């Protein structure tokens, strides 16, 4: 089968390597140039070195508008859209002779939409799924071609969950492609559209720590936005806004009863202990340049 891959993130690179290891015929890769890629994706990955080593034509774009011309010039059997943040036009999807395959790491049909790894951690999910599905002109709604469950730990970070989902998805690729090659068409499981929760696009305000939140929720927010994502923001009373990368939660206790959320209760081995809406937390890793003292507060 002739395959074109469209992608520009870590998972795109990992899945491309899996395709090459299983000797699939990748006839071209469409990706983003580094400047555009880093603007669009926190987890941008340069696919050009992999393509160069394998002798695969690599199209590094600055705009999605060039995709159609590339695909229509030499239509593939399969079009793989793995790690692309924008919808592919219906006319482009139709060029693939067998069909198009998307990837989404969420418990579909719930979790369609944006930022599935971030939302999974913030919502405290114990389990998510990785899914390869038939790509249609509606986001994440096509039939499921292959799926696997992934457990989340209480200390899961963006990077650890990303690595887990990539490894789980890589195990699905060989058998999925064997099935498609043998049959010449997709056989999958339709998704339900009944009472489905889709996840919205996040904005910078969603990354701001509000210490009226519970310590548990702040911990989830910090872990969800940790590297390779841009980090959670906090504002100190001195006016400085900086990133918080790691916190440790402290259970509610009577000593905190009369302390308002955001107050720095103590400095423990150089790390501020901060009262939250429920419980408290120690900020173990942050980017604040000013000295954080006991009795000061976070806004």
Commentary on this structure:
By secondary structure, the chain is α/β, with parallel strands linked by helices. The chain has two domains: 2-198, Formyl transferase, N-terminal domain (Rossmann fold); 204-286, Formyl transferase, C-terminal domain (Methionyl-tRNA Fmet Formyltransferase, Chain A, domain 2, Roll). Helix content is 27%, strand content 26%. The protein is built from eight helices and 14 strands. The chain has helices at 10-21, 34-40, 48-54, 67-73, 90-93, 116-122, 158-183, 215-224, and strands at 2-6, 25-32, 58-61, 78-81, 99-104, 112-113, 127-134, 144-151, 198-199, 232-235, 241-250, 264-268, 271-275, 280-286. The protein has a seven-stranded mixed β-sheet, sandwiched between helices. Strands 10-11-14-13-12 form a five-stranded antiparallel β-sheet. α1 (10-21) links the parallel β1 and β2 (25-32). α1 (10-21) runs parallel beside α7. The longest helix has 26 residues, at 158-183. It is elongated and about 70 Å long. The model has no long low-confidence stretch (mean pLDDT 96).
């Amino acid at each position: 089968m002739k395959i074109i891959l469209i992608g520009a993130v870590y998972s795109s690179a990992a899945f491309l390597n899996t395709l090459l290891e299983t000797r699939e015929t990748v006839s071209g890769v469409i990706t983003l140039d580094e400047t555009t890629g880093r603007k669009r994706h926190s987890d941008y990955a340069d696919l050009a070195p992999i393509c160069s080593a394998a002798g695969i034509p690599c199209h590094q774009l600055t705009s999605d508008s060039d995709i159609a011309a590339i695909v229509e010039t030499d239509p593939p059997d399969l079009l793989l859209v793995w790690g692309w943040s924008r919808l592919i036009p219906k006319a482009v999807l139709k060029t693939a002779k067998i069909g198009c395959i998307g990837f989404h790491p969420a418990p579909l049909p719930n979790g369609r939409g944006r930022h599935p790894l971030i939302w999974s951690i913030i919502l405290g999910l114990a389990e998510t799924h990785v899914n390869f599905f038939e790509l249609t002109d509606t986001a994440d709604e096509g039939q499921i071609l292959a799926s696997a469950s992934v457990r989340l730990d209480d200390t899961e970070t963006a990077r650890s969950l990303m690595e887990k989902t990539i490894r789980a998805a890589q195990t699905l690729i060989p058998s999925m492609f064997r099935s498609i090659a043998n049959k010449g068409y997709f056989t999958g499981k339709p998704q339900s559209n009944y009472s489905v929760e889709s996840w919205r696009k996040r904005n910078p305000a969603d990354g701001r720590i509000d210490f009226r939140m519970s310590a548990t929720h702040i911990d989830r927010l910090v872990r969800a936005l940790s590297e390779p994502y841009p980090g959670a923001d906090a504002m100190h009373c001195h006016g400085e806004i900086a990133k918080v990368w790691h916190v440790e939660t402290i259970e509610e206790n009577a000593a905190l009863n009369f302390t308002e959320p955001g107050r720095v209760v103590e400095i423990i081995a150089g790390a501020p202990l901060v009262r939250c809406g429920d419980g408290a937390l120690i900020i173990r890793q942050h980017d604040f340049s000013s000295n954080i003292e006991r009795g000061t507060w976070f806004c």
